[in-house]
Amino acid sequence: MNKSRAFLSAIALASATLMSQSAFAGPIASTTTDITLVDNKASFEQVLTGGNAGATFHNRYQFTLGEMGDFNADLSLGNGANKSLSITGFTLLDSKGNTVGSSTAAGTGWLLDVDNLASGSYTVQVSGALSTNAAGKYYGNLMLGPSAIAAVPEPAPVGLMLAGLGVLGFSVRRRARSA
User: Fold this and answer.
1) Which of 1, 104, 149, 176 has the least CB density, counted as fewest CB within 10 Å?
2) How many domains does the chain fold into?
3) Cα separation of 47 and 82, whole Å?
4) pLDDT tens digits for 3-28?
């Protein structure tokens, strides 16, 4: 009787241990946060608790652009080259969930640049996993700058320039006649 009780206890303990380790492999963070651009800038950060090696996260940061411009975002890991986080995605999505821009790795961080981004609602998505049992942190910055599209000149300045060239040509011709 005692042997079967010990055997069942051992099975229960082994099952609990296996189930607790498999629980860490699931998502630990899946959030959606609204952020507001102030002076065309915003920032965000996320701290992920330790003891969750292998756990994944998918965080979204929603914002609205009121005007067209060049969009820039950067993502960095807390503590510099922190090996506890593994970033698997840093993307910009439109309001329909379509990918508008993907990041490129830059040193210990990631950069996301999209030229001439139209006004509207967008989401920056950060995905990854905890590589170790240590806690991890990432932070990012968003910025919208003026669009790099060349300005089309207005008709009035062009007309004034042509009129000035006409007066200059008339005066040169008049001097040539009098000489």
Assistant:
1) 1
2) 1
3) 12
4) 666 554 555 544 544 444 433 345 56
